[in-house]
Structures are given as C-alpha cells and as structure tokens.
Known about the structure:
Strand content: 25-35%
Number of strands: 13
Largest sheet: 6 strands, mixed
Helix content: 10-25%
Oligomer: single chain
CATH architecture: 4-Layer Sandwich
Amino acid sequence: MHHTRLTMQIVLSELGFELSAELQLRETPPWREWLNRMALHAVGSVQLLNCARGQATTISVLQDFAAKHENLILLLQEPWCDRHGNPPSLPGFDIFTPSSTKPKCVTYIRHTLALTATTVFTAQDSFLGTMITTPHDQKTFTLFNFYSPGRAEPLATILPTLKLPNDCLLMGDLNTHHLWWQGPLPQTARISCASHTIANWLEDNHFHLQNEPANPTHHPRNGGHPATIDLCLS
C-alpha cells in the first residue's frame, strides 16, 4: 500500500499559516496565536507519513526531512524498527514513542531553543500525545500522533478516555472511513459504528478537518479504492 505524505506549513512569525500542496488548512486553528508568540521568524513544517513498516521508506523520509532546516516535526505511523524493536534515531531531533519497543507511531521534533517537548499521553503502542512548550513564555499546545491499528475500533475506544487540552492538533493514520473526510464512498462501502463514534466525538469536541475532503491519502497496492484515512484535525 502507498500513503501520501501530508505536510502542514506553519508561518511562525505572522499569526497564521501557509498552505501546502498536500494539506490545506481549511479553518483557523485555535493555537494560531500561540505560534505567533514563538521567538522564530521562519516557516516551520509539520509532516505526517505511514511508512507501512518499510525500512527503505522510513530511512528515506527521515533523511529527507532532516535535510531541510524549516522541517520541525515529523510524525510517522508504522515505522520500520530494528531487530531490538527500536525505530531509527535522527541526529538533531528528539524522539517520542508510546512504548519502549516496536512502537506503531513515532514523533520526531527538531532540537531548537524556541521549544521544548514532553510526553503527556500514551496508550498501547499506537497512541501518543506530546506537549510542546515555548520556554520564554511557557505557552503550550499538544500534538497527538495516532495510529489506529487496521481499523477504526481501537481509536473509537481510546478517544473517550482522552482529556483534551485547550490547544491541540490531532494527526495520524486513523484507519477511519467517513463522509466528512472521505467524500462519497463506493456503493459497496459501509461506514462502521466505530467510524460514526469517532466522527461524533470529533464534532462534539469542536475539531476542524484540515485535509481537503475526498483527497485520497491511501492507495492500496491491490488496486482497491483509494481512501482518505491520514488526517489532520485541530
């Protein structure tokens, strides 16, 4: 299978965001003011990719991401891990995982004096929350990196246990099909009860979809119908 890498470009100095080719911000996130307070004058990139456990894909995306200084945060799902169950390290970046071995999601954050990061939420080996703080004024937002293994049910179970901070961004491979982000589904497709549960929870908690609806992010190698399952919500 093939997943599309999603990129969010953040203009840190202009109380706003730049739009990327892969992912458009359709609503104004509530933490936009937070970003303006950061002592940076650059464009920062936050990127997301499911590596499907491929070693070449994982190593390649890490090297490509690290080569550009404007790239700040990388969220991987299903990364390749070595024989000890460890995902690759990346010089110049802090690494955050929900489990000590064989994590199904990993967050890489570039070393910079402008921010610090701390793990604030983990569940199983697939769900991770990282609180990011600007040391000079102690402003924070939380970045959730989620991988719902294989289907929507694991995520539907986790979400009701989540204590949401005021400002957060939820990204990941949610393995959830819904008209909200998928657009019209094939006639043979059915929306599961878990997918409805997830969509209702997101709506009840006032999340905004930042993907372009009906823009597929997952292209099955077997020729199956493309799907929009890699999402960014704020």
